[in-house]
Amino acid sequence: MSGYRGRFAPSPTGLLHAGSLVAALASWLDARAHGGRWLVRIEDVDLPRCPPGAADEILRQLAACGLVSDEPVLRQSERGTVYQAALDRLIEQGWAYPCGCTRKDIAQALAARGDPRERHGELVYPGSCRPSNGGLKGRLARAWRFDIAAVATALGLPSITHWNDRRLGAQQQEVAMEVGDFVLRRADGLWAYQLAVVVDDAEQGITDVVRGEDLADNSARQILLQQALGYPRPRYLHTPLVCGANGEKLSKQNGAAAVDLSDPLAALNAAAALLGLAQQGGSVMQALDCWTRQWATLYNSAP
């Protein structure tokens, strides 16, 4: 058994759709091709958006496809104290600060300086409440943000974060300019995805993150958090997206239907095709075994 540890981390705001099955299959195959362990983590940190029973149904969907976690399933909704401890560490270092800005405040601040930047539907945070800019200035604290400049100065980090993706190749992002100081704890008190995923990956000893290409853009922010918290950096592989008839990626937000598992092998074959794997007959377990060998060759990941 190698030291490889991978994971699939669905958000139970709905059931698995065809796109999420692709990510689940890819992460499972990568773990098996490396002779490693595959974990399932339920990312239900945003509980108000998670229908009752959805997480358990996702686990049943995965099991129907022969994809079963090698260790007990972790649920983010039960880990608030762990995330708070990580945030407290950043606060003590002076690397996180309270923010009182609403979305309207951010839009107005950007417009005032003639820079109304919007990125993937999100406004690039201008640093209005950053301590070096005078802090809250009388606003009530609503959220907590990561102070990119303070971390970069303290740790001697370059302005541009570089990393390699096993499928997409060399990647880079200047987070301070393209995203701004990002949220760690939201105004509604819920934990932000970026902090929760970084803490959980580190605590679970995840060595390889295999997930959908729509999440690739998060990598630089997560790498900065890993550096600030002293965590190791996992390897990354982002899988192709499944798109609907309108050309948009399938997602729970745009009403993607739950994957049809009346014939699990057919559903897995459809997912495998998107990953460049040959179609298989026989049983689900036989197909998974064949795809594991193909995956090891395709991604040069034999143990």
From TrEMBL:
Residue ranges of the motif 'KMSKS' region: 249-253
Positions contributing to ATP binding: K252
Residue stretches making up the Glutamyl/glutaminyl-tRNA synthetase class Ib catalytic domain: 5-108, 178-262
Obligatory cofactor(s): Zn(2+)
Gene Ontology annotations of biological process type: glutamyl-tRNA aminoacylation; tRNA modification
SUPFAM superfamilies with a match to the protein in the record: Nucleotidylyl transferase
Pfam families: tRNA-synt_1c
Residues reported in the UniProt entry to bind L-glutamate: R7, F8, A9, P10, S11, E43, Y193, R211
GO cellular component assignments: cytosol
Enzyme class: ligase
Known EC number: 6.1.1.-
Family that this chain belongs to: Belongs to the class-I aminoacyl-tRNA synthetase family. GluQ subfamily.
Protein name from the UniProt record: Glutamyl-Q tRNA(Asp) synthetase
Originating species: Malikia granosa
Gene name for this UniProt entry: gluQ
